[in-house]
Amino acid sequence: MRNTANTIKNEETDITNNFGTLYYPKSALVFYETEDYNRDGYVEHFDIDPNGNPVNAHPLTVREAQRLSKSLNIQNKKEKDFLRPSGIISETVLFIDTSENGKVVWYTKAQERQLLFTEKLSIPNGLANVPPLLWCANKQGMKIFALETDQRPNTDTPLFHAPFFNVYESGSVCMGTVDVNIKSSASLEEFTKKWENYFFNSYFSHLVNSHNPIKGNLVILWKSLIDSKEPFPTDILINSNLTLKNLL
To answer: Known InterPro entries for this protein (predicted)?
Structure first.
């Protein structure tokens, strides 16, 4: 008969090594304040011992305060660097919002890209020409649309449904299992490059909510374009009834 107690004991495995980076408390600040009308206060600094207990209480020293101030300034600088261009802003960038969540609208001209497809679509992975694209992204997600020409869009430029799998009718992209990680210190160029890589380095797998973005069969289209060097046929694009100003 199986020994249940031993089985349970053997199954009690230490899994802490499977966790992400662990941070340990090193110090703590406690703020004191009087209850008088003219309130006064001071700050006390505690070290944290290996068991997590506060020890060595003492008023916050000038050196400790300077170290804290420097740390906060570094973090503030990183946040200020968010979406800061590394040089002259590319003419492909159409709109920038540098608030906490951020937002950038940019476009790319028709080009050849490596495309990846899941096996169930029976489309080989390979190089294919894609149409001009309009991208709209923040830290959490992205929308993508197609354009008729390589000309720089203006606010009245019509947007067409992006001719790809994994895209909602609204233009939002289903990222699936992609681990989106946009840093608060990302430059403008890093931000746009990262989103383009997220999109083209993920596997296209399905039509979202049966939304067919082209006039015709999307599987047949990409089968015919992969490794063909043929330009993308923009005449099969479907108008989304949106213009660039709808994304600003």
So the answer is: Prok-E2_D (IPR032787)
